[in-house]
Here is the input.
Amino acid sequence: MVTLSMVARYPTNAVGLCVFDLDHTLVRTPLDLAAMAAEMRRRLEARCGPLPPRQERYRIGELLAHCRAHAPALEADLWRLALEREHRAMEQATLEAGALEAVAGTRAAGFRTAVWTNNAREVSLPALARLGLLEHLDLVVTRDDMRALKPDPDGWRVIAAHFGEVGVAVVVGDSWVDGVAAAAVGVPFVAYRPRPGEMDRFKVTPVAWTDDLATLPAWLVTRWSGAP
Here is the structure.
């Protein structure tokens, strides 16, 4: 069953842009960001002492910011840790169900397509190529192109510079970080199989929800055309 629920309309003369997250949106991997952050924290605390306790776990971007401020010599080591984990995970990457149909169909329908990921370029591009997605993408933005990781919206700066003016755009992702980044630049967000309660917890309001990526191209065409 199609589960996309539309709560907004777009102009009929728009040039469309669809920006996809990578991990757990287009590809399925065993990458465990919580475990990565925990290992980073252990290395950071061994050098700098304990971080202030809090209920919410420290996220990777926060740990790296703390590292730059208090132990800049350690930053390269933390990035190496991240890259090693990403390499292992991306070697096992498989397509999410409907992902190829979503990207290829969206582009075939006349929309520009991009990926916006916190992963490194050297692991993202080979995985996208191996899984047949790269040829259907107009742009891939990785952390190598950004000054800050999502949920910071800096990656949109790169996307906007590449595409220039577009009538309308949408971001598709599985996580609150994608939704927060999209909201920061005023772009509608489509949630793909998010964790229960996560959107409410981080005050993300998706324009639509889906558990079937293959339905995305038809939904975009319908809504961009202004059809009822």
Summary: Residues 1-14 have pLDDT under 50 and may be disordered. The two ends are 19 Å apart (CA to CA). The longest helix spans residues 75-91. DSSP finds nine helices and eight strands in the chain.
